Amino acid sequence: MAAKKRNTLRNKAATRLGNTSKVDEVKTVTEFTEDPKAYLHQFKETKKEKLNNKQNDFLSKIKNNSGSLNAEFDGISKSSVRRRKRKIRDNLKPRLDDLLTSLQKEDDLGEFTRENVDMNVTTDNINIDQNPFSPSVVNPPARIQVTKIVKRVEPGSIKKRKNEPNIRNKKGAKLLASKERKRFNEVITNQVFKQNSFSALRDIIKMQKE
User: Fold this and answer.
1) Strands (E), the chain
2) Closest residue by Cα to residue 94 from 208, 188, 175, 7
3) How far apart are alpha carbons 31 and 25 in whole angstroms?
4) Ramachandran sector of residue 120 (left: φ over 0; alpha: ψ -120 to 50; beta: rest)
5) How far apart are CA 210 and CA 207, in angstroms?
6) Could you tell me how far CA 52 lies from the centroid of its own chain?
7) What CA–CA distances, in Å, run from 183 to 170, 190, 199?
8) What digits encode the pLDDT tens for the residues 36-53?
9) Are 143 and 119 in contact (CB under 8 A)?
10) For 47-86, what is the HEC assignment?
11) Can you tell me the distance from the alpha carbon of 182 to that of 178, in angstroms, rounded to the nearest whole number?
């Protein structure tokens, strides 16, 4: 027994709508297909340009993070800036060797390198009543020059004194500060320092090196 064909209006309308929707889907797919060769002509960044951009980004990041007001330290890390500032401070510190070298050029330092012993024998001290033909008058004794040998001291070397308070300790730093204040007052009130400050400074440096 054969089945009946149900060609009702509802079935006909449904089949008609289904066919049209399939056709529309196929049309939309065919209309918006992309070209597979479209990305072949796009701009590509080379390795050299990529490396340069990376370096520039890194330098700008360091410059922004440094936060230094001085334009001289732009683009330098904080640790490097600290090392440079520490080196500048060390160069500004007073050096006793350089000061002693400059003081040795003065005339008043001759007594520390060479001592001239004057025997007080001059032609002015010779008695006029003496025989003018005596050998002491004709050939007066010359000045005797005595050279003092000074032990060579290495530059920058200062003799360490034992049993001195340590500046790293709180108690030792306090004792050293009080001792330094006392010595400073003595130097200021010293008459020798007021008359010739360079000579007094030279003597202090010599005492520290001995």
Assistant:
1) 115-116, 145-146
2) 208
3) 10
4) left
5) 5
6) 31
7) 20, 10, 17
8) 666 666 777 889 999 999
9) yes
10) HHHHHHHHHHHHHHHHHHHHCCCCHHHCCCCHHHHHHHHH
11) 6
What DSSP state is assigned to residue 134? S
Q: Is 60 exceeded by the pLDDT of residue 199?
A: yes
What is the rounded distance in angstroms from the CA atom of residue 193 to the CA atom of residue 51? 67
Structure tokens at 161: 């004194």
Q: Which one, of 160, 159, 158, 208, lies nearest residue 183 by Cα?
A: 208
Q: pTM of the full predicted structure?
A: 0.24
48, two tokens: 């050299």
Between helices 96-103 and 197-209, what is the axis angle to 10°? 130
Given a contact cutoff of 8 angstroms between Cβ atoms, the answer to whether 64 and 166 are in contact is no
With 0-12 / 13-18 / 19 or more C-beta atoms within 10 angstroms meaning exposed / middle / buried, residue 199 is middle
State pLDDT tens for residues 164-191: 788 888 888 888 889 888 888 887 787 8
Q: How far is C-alpha 63 from the chain's CA centre?
A: 20
Q: 63-118 pLDDT, tens per residue?
A: 776 665 566 666 677 888 889 888 888 877 766 667 667 666 665 555 555 555 44
Residue with tokens 């700008």: 60
In which residue are the tokens 């030792």 written? 172
Tokens encoding 96: 């006793």
Pull the structure tokens for residue 52.
């340069």
SS3 content of the chain, % helix, strand, coil (to 5): 60, 0, 40
